[in-house]
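Long-time lurker, first post. I've been practising inverse folding by hand and with some scripts of my own, and I keep getting stuck on stretches where the structure tokens seem ambiguous. Below is the full token string for one chain I'm working on. Before anyone asks, I'm not after the true native sequence, just a reasonable design that respects the backbone. If someone could post their per-position residues I'd love to compare against what I wrote down in my notebook.
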């Protein structure tokens, strides 16, 4: 039997010079720089990047460890919410995110914040077998205590639970027009931790900033500032979880998650907590979900989920394709759930730790994003820290500017949305929803969907 030869042996050696000649021929006189693109943060994206063969994998979710497939529970009727939760879990979900009415991303829906309603919602749910999390809310500490009471009453072993209580003293209150209190939040978190319930108590959540139009670096910088502010207020790193949004830009999505790990690792190093584990929850972007030709949202969600998985998120939530229209029905929820199941169990994306390591394009973008994010973080600190910049409106102003630039990119066709601004479907029909979406007032960081920005 002959030795097996490498596949590359059958091809002539490739050089950049040879590639460049072929590119110039294909460009037919157009300048090579016409292939160069820039991100919203001004990061230059070359058409070809050298392989970073000496790059080490970034520490994130371990290879072979499946991510948590999380589903939002956001019905106002506790009995219906219970059916929703059990259906999701029986259909392959391994985690639930409890969305309470009035929450920062509840969109006018959500569970009632009452003990009896919560008990009915969780009836039959074996909390010790799944991961629970609470969606961002201005009254996060009170809701965390409510959930903790329900879990203690359930009789399940508390140390076997995995709960991200999600107390956010910054962006959730800001969206509600209130000033948060980091010291009070950390005090509530320590009281929760003393109850012995496994998991994290606090959240450095960038989703609200992202949905308002922030660039990737602005979102990362805001997360870094929130994380640092919580540490300064007396929180231990193991008390904090991070949440981030991921959109349909697959390369930037992967790089953003990797850059997040680098930024958090640097903060931990500088604060004397080097090596601490900080779990990351990723959610597909709400601002990328469009109303027209809503089925195309399934493609966007798949790309975003792929990026989140390759980027090493420990937990992922895929928003239903119909969420721009209202409260998703069972079909839309099943599609969101199955998107993750296919990527996890058929594509096996969880098998390898940091599979993007060594990719020249992604390594370059990761480093550039981390540098830009650190610059945003330093700017926030120079403004007096996150609480101060939220009070002054400085961060919100920068995000507003980014959103206007994003809107302008739609206006001059540099950015397009398939099915909305390009190739619109003349026979489009709206998807079925359980209830029509309602706009909720936001004092700061309002949701700015891409299709709305594109419409001007």
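-- Answer (accepted) --
I ran through it position by position. Result:
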């Amino acid at each position: 039997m002959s030795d097996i030869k490498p596949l590359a042996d059958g091809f002539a050696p490739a050089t950049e010079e040879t590639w460049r000649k072929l590119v110039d021929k294909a460009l037919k006189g157009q300048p090579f720089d016409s292939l160069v693109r820039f991100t919203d943060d001004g990061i230059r994206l070359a058409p070809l990047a050298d392989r970073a063969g000496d790059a080490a994998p970034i520490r994130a979710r371990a290879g072979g460890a499946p991510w948590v497939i999380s589903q939002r529970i956001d019905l106002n009727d506790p009995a219906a919410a219970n059916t929703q939760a059990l259906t999701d879990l029986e259909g392959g979900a391994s985690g639930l995110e409890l969305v309470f009415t009035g929450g920062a991303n509840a969109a006018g829906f959500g569970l009632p914040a009452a003990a009896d309603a919560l008990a009915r919602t969780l009836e039959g749910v074996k909390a010790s077998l799944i991961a629970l999390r609470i969606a961002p809310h201005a009254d996060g500490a009170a809701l965390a205590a409510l959930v903790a009471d329900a879990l203690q009453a359930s009789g399940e072993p508390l140390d076997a639970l995995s709960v991200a209580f999600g107390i956010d003293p910054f962006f959730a209150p800001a969206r509600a027009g209130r000033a948060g209190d980091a010291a009070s939040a950390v005090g509530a978190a320590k009281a929760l931790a003393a109850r012995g319930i496994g998991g994290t108590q606090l959240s450095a959540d960038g989703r609200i900033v992202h949905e308002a139009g922030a660039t990737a670096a602005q979102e990362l910088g805001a997360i870094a500032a929130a994380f640092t502010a919580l540490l300064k207020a007396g929180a231990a790193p193991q008390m904090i979880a991070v949440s981030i949004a991921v959109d349909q830009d697959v390369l930037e999505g992967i790089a953003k998650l990797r850059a997040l790990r680098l930024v958090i690792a640097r903060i931990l190093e500088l604060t004397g907590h080097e090596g601490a584990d900080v779990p990351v929850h990723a959610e597909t972007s709400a601002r990328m979900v469009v109303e027209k030709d809503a089925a195309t949202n399934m493609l966007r969600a798949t790309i975003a989920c792929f990026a989140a998985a390759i980027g090493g998120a420990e937990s992922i939530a895929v928003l239903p394709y119909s969420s721009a229209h209202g409260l998703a029905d069972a079909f839309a929820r099943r599609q969101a759930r199955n998107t993750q199941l296919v990527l996890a169990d058929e594509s096996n994306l969880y098998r390898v730790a940091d599979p993007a390591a060594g990719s020249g394009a992604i390594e370059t973008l990761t480093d550039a994003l981390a540098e830009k994010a650190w610059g945003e973080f330093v700017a926030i600190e120079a403004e007096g820290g996150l609480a101060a910049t939220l009070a002054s409106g400085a961060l919100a102003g920068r995000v507003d500017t980014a959103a206007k630039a994003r809107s302008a990119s739609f206006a001059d066709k540099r950015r397009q949305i398939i099915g909305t601004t390009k190739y619109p479907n003349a026979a489009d029909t709206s998807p079925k929803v359980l209830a029509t979406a309602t706009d909720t007032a936001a004092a700061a960081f309002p949701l700015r969907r891409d299709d709305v920005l594109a419409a001007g």
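A couple of notes from the structure itself: The chain is about 40% helix and 10% strand. The CA atoms of residues 411 and 454 lie 6 Å apart. Happy to go over any region you disagree with.
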